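Revision sheet: structure tokens.
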Amino acid sequence: MAQGLSIADTLTIPKSYKPEFKRQINHDKIDAEQKAILASDGVADNFFNTSKNEDINYLATQALIRKVDNLQFLIESDTILDHRLKVNYLYGLENILKYFSATWNQNSDKRVNPSSLPVIFGAYEACVKKDRNQEPIEEVIGRLPYDAGNAVLGANIFEKNAGYKSAKRNLILKFCVLHPEKMLATLKDNPNMPFADSLIRTIDKRKYARQLYDFAQADNQLGYQIRNINDDNFIKTIVLMARSKSGQQYFPFLDNIVKGKMTIGDIDAIKDDSLKYYKLLVATQMDYVKRALYKDTAFEFKALSQRLIDKAKSGFVNIINGLHNENAEVRFRSIQSLSAEELYYLAVSSDGSIYTSSFVKGVFPLMMKKCNNRADSLLVSLHFDKYRKFIKMSAGFNTLSTFLSSFPQKTDPNDESYAEKLMKAFVGKLEHGNGIEDGVDVADSYASIVETIKPLANEMLRNVQLNYIRNEKAGNKSGMAIYNILNKLFLSADNANNIDLTKELGIPPVYEVPYKSLANDSGNVIMQVFFYGDKDGQNIFRGFVSMFSNSNWKIDGSNSQWVKISSTKGQPVSIYANRALPEETGEDEQAQKALHDYLEKNKLYPTVTIHRGHSYYADATIQHMFSSSKIVFLGSCGGYHLIHDVLAKAEDAHIIASKQIGATEVNRPFFQLLTDKVRNGNNIDWIPFWKELDSMIAAKEFEDYIPPYKNLGALFIKAYKLAMGDEDDKRAF
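Predicted:
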């Protein structure tokens, strides 16, 4: 509108007007594009409805109909233009309409806002006039926003105009400003931009350090321009890293390198020593955490945290996990030189992957010894970094009482002890945490704490209720949702409270799995069992098949890669289990894939998934399980810590897992009871099911198995997703 009225806005087309016959096809194509755009809002009429603002809709419609018609007339009736030029400008108008039609309702950086239509056609009219008079169009395009300017150049007829290259460069600059995340990629595709150096210097270094690193390595014009910048210390540092074969190892320390606190040479001296490199990672993490308390967030802080996780697992945790059959002296030799702080980060960096025995017999007791059994002093030295994660893990591994008992006892009976203050903070201010991750940690911990430290569980419940009131007064929707869910979950852990989570929180049933939800359209219940080809797995497979050597079942072993076990009495149940073929040759994995392909091809989607094998195989089971699973049994050590990975694959799954040792003495009775219930067409009602299972099992390991209705972290995720909607859930994860 700011460009004012043009001739095409005010003229009236004579009723007697008809285009020249030899150009009629060009006008017909333009008319067809107009009609298609008018219908693209969902209604084939003469109004373009794309906004809640009726004024915008009206102006866009007027531009699309009247202005385009008038432009057609102006081009057609221009006495100076010859046939070739008239066809050219009509073709350009058609192209603009095509470009707009293809982009206006896209969610992309090329989208053209319909409100820009009057400006676009006004600018096209001005460009035609300048081009007709052999004048540059640069000034016309320069006045336009990016989407409108790009649409006008979408006419694809001005390439020979003297101002085209300048206009194009100006649009590239506008695009880079609008989309800084695509700036470097755009400059790579458009070399020799005169403003490239200046743009590179203005890039958000905190966000796009990785991009700078990647593009600085390239053997192209952009790579040369980045490497040639000598007056920016950050970019110079990135270039030095990019020139090194070990550049990725420097990223966690980028901030300290830029600030001159550390050199690349310092890192080179220790980067090949796993122990020294890990120690430097921990020291840097502690430094960055301390700085963050004062609102000083280091460059690539996330890169540091991720590298710490990777090194903790690969350099230490995977090693002590793999030595689980060795004596303690051999198994835990690699961690003896680590400090209490370094052992702490070893633990919190391996949540979900560290074995129970690795934590309980190795990392935790050594950490407590190294901090002189003063966990309070340890947390202070760590600035309480990731303390919720550690408390959750300690609760899950039944070491929380030991951890908290190392805190000084209160001297004033009317005051709170240090441990009480810590647990109060553990539950408090979750609305300010990292998405809902902290809420999940609190929920997960409660299921263990309520069984082992009942007074502490009662205090957690009271603090949750107080925090709900605080958030209610503040009108914090997220906080209210978090604490309402935790309150209901905590109360539901006690059957005497008769809390119906389906009714209270709107989440799918957690106390039972109806039989009808397990059976497919043909009335058949499909189960899949994953086996692995190590020595233990082969023995377990043979024992599993022998369970069904009775008149209730029929075993079909005709396939070389899997067995099918079918019910002969009661309701139809089909159990498919891959053979535990040798893992050394990868035959077990091939058998799983072949079975998966067979089930998928025949639309036999399992609703029950069973993992039988060591915990280090569990990730593979989760990766290849079907999302149709309604019941998932993780019969391995520490399967409890993989619950959230299962939910990412099958969001409504009821999950049974152990938080410590997985035992055949538990796994086998569970599967026998489950298959009998299903074969008889029973609903799986977890509370009586668990009581019946308890009466069948004498093994002490059973107490560490968590039934689905006590997987509070899993239930928290489901409930929060419903309470806050999909967008909040996406942000949280």
